[in-house]
Amino acid sequence: MLQETDARSLGKLNDLPDDSPLIVPYLGKLRNGAEKELERGTWADLSDTFLLRFLRARDFDTELALKLLINYFRWRNECPEISANLQPSTVLGLLQNNYHAVLKFRDTNGSRILVYRIGQWDPKLFTAYEVFRVSLITSELIVQETETQRNGLKAIFDLEGWRFAHAFQITPSLAKKISAVLTIHLHGCTYQQSLIQYFPDSILPEEYGGSGPTIEEACKEWTEFILKSEDQLHKLSIASSDG
């Protein structure tokens, strides 16, 4: 049998289907490591489908995948104010205000592109925890996509409309939680010119200097997808709260 590093050096594990026998040893090693590391009573999904997300995110390096997995479970259990209720109804106002979108097309690396429009967030109506819950809902949905597991995601923070009221809501610790799992490009009022350095013109909304669908269309399309995923998000919330 190939050693783990030798098998990974072939560069093909991430391209294999979920049911490939070649990934079984990696799943077993990650599962055994998680069972040893996790504290008793910690909610944990250790199914093959779930574990594959973390293996692909770390190119099947089981040690790195284990660290990522443990951090994920601990965060979910230690931050119930954000993660315990992932129902779309808890963030419906933000979504309907066109605050957030996932662009229809991926970038040249196959990454999903997320957009957050800070100016559409009214801090008098919605807390920073609700804003972060939107991110968590989206992350939980798109990480189920095999291509996203392989190629990751990036986020664009549209800071037009940023005010001190927003800054007061986002503490350093909360900002760290948001940025820890995302590749973030921050842009101010000149973002139209700078964004095309990172993303193809064809996938960017018109408002950001591209030729793709408008940002409002992208927001509405993604909101509809989240609402259609309500049952799935409800099951995830129940699983987490039962831990």
Polypeptide structure, described:
Keywords: Lipid-binding. InterPro entries: CRAL-TRIO_dom, CRAL-TRIO_dom_sf, CRAL/TRIO_N_dom, CRAL/TRIO_N_dom_sf. This is TTPA protein. Residues 79-243 form the CRAL-TRIO domain. This protein is of the alpha/beta class and 243 residues long. The protein has two domains: 4-78, Helicase, Ruva Protein, domain 3 (Orthogonal Bundle), CATH 1.10.8; 85-241, 3-Layer(aba) Sandwich (Phosphatidylinositol Transfer Protein Sec14p), CATH 3.40.525.10. The protein is 50% helix and 8% strand. The protein has helices at 4-9, 24-37, 48-57, 62-78, 80-83, 92-96, 128-142, 146-151, 164-169, 172-179, 191-195, 215-228, 230-241; strands at residues 100-102, 112-117, 153-158, 183-187. The radius of gyration is 19 Å and the shape is globular. The model is unreliable at 186-191 (pLDDT under 50).
List the helices and strands and how they pair.
Elements: H1 4-9, H2 24-37, H3 48-57, H4 62-78, H5 80-83, H6 92-96, E1 100-102, E2 112-117, H7 128-142, H8 146-151, E3 153-158, H9 164-169, H10 172-179, E4 183-187, H11 191-195, H12 215-228, H13 230-241
Parallel strand pairs: 2-3, 3-4
Antiparallel strand pairs: 1-2
Helix pairs in contact: 2-3, 2-4, 3-4
Pfam families: CRAL_TRIO (PF00650), CRAL_TRIO_N (PF03765)
Protein name: TTPA protein
GO molecular function: lipid transfer activity; phosphatidylinositol bisphosphate binding; vitamin E binding
Question: Which key terms come to mind for this protein?
Answer:
CRAL/TRIO_N_dom, four-stranded mixed sheet, Phosphatidylinositol Transfer Protein Sec14p, Helicase, Ruva Protein, domain 3, CRAL-TRIO_dom, phosphatidylinositol bisphosphate binding, 2 domains, alpha/beta, globular, 243 residues, lipid transfer activity, 13 helices, TTPA protein
